[in-house]
Amino acid sequence: MGAGKGMDKWILMTTARAPTNIAVIKYWGKRDETLILPLNENISVTLDLDHLSATTTVAEISLSGGRFQTCLREIRYRGEDFKDEKKGICIKKEDWQTLHVHIASFNNFPTAAGLASSAAGFACLVYSLAKLMNLKENCSQLSAIARQGSGSACRSLYGGFVKWTMGNELNGSDSLAVQLVDETHWDDIVIIIAVVSSRQKDTSSTSGMRDSVESSALLQYRAKTIVPKRMIQMDKAIKTRDFASFAKLTCADSNQFHAVCLDTVPPIFYLNNTSHRIINFMERWNHNEGTPQVAYTFDAGPNAVMLAPNRKVGALLLQRLLFYFPPPSGTEPTSYILGDTSLLEEAGVQTVKDIEALPPPLESKDSVSLQRYPGDVSYFICTKPGRGPMILPGDQSLLHPETGLPK
Amino acid sequence: MGAGKGMDKWILMTTARAPTNIAVIKYWGKRDETLILPLNENISVTLDLDHLSATTTVAEISLSGGRFQTCLREIRYRGEDFKDEKKGICIKKEDWQTLHVHIASFNNFPTAAGLASSAAGFACLVYSLAKLMNLKENCSQLSAIARQGSGSACRSLYGGFVKWTMGNELNGSDSLAVQLVDETHWDDIVIIIAVVSSRQKDTSSTSGMRDSVESSALLQYRAKTIVPKRMIQMDKAIKTRDFASFAKLTCADSNQFHAVCLDTVPPIFYLNNTSHRIINFMERWNHNEGTPQVAYTFDAGPNAVMLAPNRKVGALLLQRLLFYFPPPSGTEPTSYILGDTSLLEEAGVQTVKDIEALPPPLESKDSVSLQRYPGDVSYFICTKPGRGPMILPGDQSLLHPETGLPK
């Protein structure tokens, strides 16, 4: 992010990287559309920066987006004096209002895949702007600004497991992210994302949420009566690393969120036949083992996010997923399994032949339906819980240090 | 249905036909599993006997089914004296307990298609047994017996629009069907059923319902708080023939039932991608016209039941369905559109070429997605609301009048 002023020779720049996150107690429904205040509290896990993050510096971006403007205004308003005597830069608090901002940003994962790219993007924008303008606010306070860009962005200001609190203030200032535990607390969790092939255009979450708030009686009941109880249970499950409780709550809450979407007028469908199959396969596995091996959760799209308690179970999960959803012929494992590909070794899968030779999962052996579905999943991303946003060194800036234009 | 006794020469027989029905306020969840008492009241429309009915006379049937035994016991217990002096038959009340019953039954529609075949079947069984054994009970009282065979069967004892009342008695005797209006009250309604191709095995409604009652908090809320209000609104919409209100309530209640299925642990999926598409197409049409043209509802499977207010709109509906879901190549319209095929003429569709030449619906013209989905629907059935069960003349018996064995 660069700030240049008229005839001056300097450009001040900050580059940051922020992670995406996935909710395990879902956010669906706003009680205030402009301030983006949630109808219910919710909890997410932050995903590893290396695999799913936004990096932000500069570009000649159109500044017309209402939500972008909100974030920029809120940060500028809180800007502090800045002095760098070596470079001869001296900026007064009030100068931030008039300085021009250049912004460049990219995601290291497909934006179109429906993986909460706006969460990472707005978190990164707010975080980098705040560092540029020397804000004193902590991450929790910054999260209340990011929230106004995209609701779930507030949770990407922290690593580990993060709670978005309801807040009481009319202006929304106390509806912000709180870190429940950091990324080291439960660090053996393995996460696999199935990016599901889809022909259907998804309903945007902003308009879908609005329709649900207006028309679903079940959503009101969920927000008022069910979620408060689940928040307490989920908080406890996370703090005690109780994977069985965590998995049951995560799956139930994902399914209830999609139930509310169906109860909306007109109904919203995010899950497709492939999503249904993934759920059925995971439920059958969990049922067969007697205790949950895997948790699954789906956001506003057909992609599955699956969590296993450790690498051993993670490898078993990957084997199952590759058995049911092998790559289409001609696709190499290396372009079909992305992210932390070391899990492939533990799953004993290196080549296309290894995938073809995978035995049916035990829980499917007594079943007639041993059908495999090549092509129904576009690719998998293997990852894990991760840290919050970070500042990158100057040489990783996306903008040229002298012109302030994209490199 | 035949009753033969040891060495006697006579066989007494009754043949009946009973319709199936489709709920417009859904029944999902029992408060008593054995008596089959519903968690909420519900309303159905009875479908035309000519297109979707069960016909029952005789066969060497295994009498081991628990629910079948319940119905038989309840009817026998209420049997009355019977005398036919011409044939020399004289049966005392108590004789019904020991007489042997032969039963034969068939449906005039595919049982596997998931079109509530058990509703028509049990209604027909109870109705024909009651006539055979000369019961004094009226249809409403008989419905409480049919209910113990299959919950929704109670509603097939009447034509037109039928309400299944909750009842207060512990023994379930007042949880029975009441006719809201008969089939002549709203007789211009056209019904089209899309039998959707499906690879997936459906969850049985009995076990699905049980899982929902045990695990879905949304179901409890729906049954206690939402359905009572909808029952009043639906009753009014039906009595005043207010199609717009009827359609909104019918669609919302179908979607909420499927939402509750999704909220179940493990989740239940009855709707597939084709069901989703049908809903989206119907919603788009209704939205585009500004007022509902069509109501849709889905039971425990992917098949759509669509209702239009009159033949004119019914023809427009059929055009749309055939545009989006043309028969696979080589299939003639006559084997693709079943039931009351006279609607085809009004839709201007007689040949495969007519279907191919159908213009895109107006509401789809501005959309990029003019895709058609041949093969996604197995066939359509055109029908209308119909009458309750009827007794058929002796020559239509399914059993031989002298041997009592299947013809």
From TrEMBL, chains A, B:
Pfam families: MDD_C (PF18376), MVD-like_N (PF22700). Residues 191-391 form the Mvd1 C-terminal domain. GO terms for molecular function: ATP binding; diphosphomevalonate decarboxylase activity. Its EC number is 4.1.1.33. InterPro entries: GHMP_kinase_C_sf (IPR036554), Mev_decarb (IPR005935), Mev_diP_decarb (IPR029765), MVD-like_N (IPR053859), Mvd1_C (IPR041431), Ribosomal_Su5_D2-typ_SF (IPR020568), Ribsml_uS5_D2-typ_fold_subgr (IPR014721). SUPFAM superfamilies: GHMP Kinase, C-terminal domain, Ribosomal protein S5 domain 2-like. Residues 18-177 form the Diphosphomevalonate decarboxylase-like N-terminal domain. Keywords: ATP-binding, Lipid biosynthesis, Lipid metabolism, Lyase, Nucleotide-binding, Steroid biosynthesis, Steroid metabolism, Sterol biosynthesis, Sterol metabolism. One of its GO terms (biological process) is sterol biosynthetic process. It is an enzyme of class 4 (lyase). Signal peptide: none annotated. It catalyses: (R)-5-diphosphomevalonate + ATP = isopentenyl diphosphate + ADP + phosphate + CO2. GO terms for cellular component: cytosol. NCBIfam families: mevDPdecarb. Belongs to the diphosphomevalonate decarboxylase family. Performs the first committed step in the biosynthesis of isoprene-containing compounds such as sterols and terpenoids. This is Diphosphomevalonate decarboxylase. It comes from Zostera marina. The lineage of its organism: Eukaryota, Viridiplantae, Streptophyta, Embryophyta, Tracheophyta.
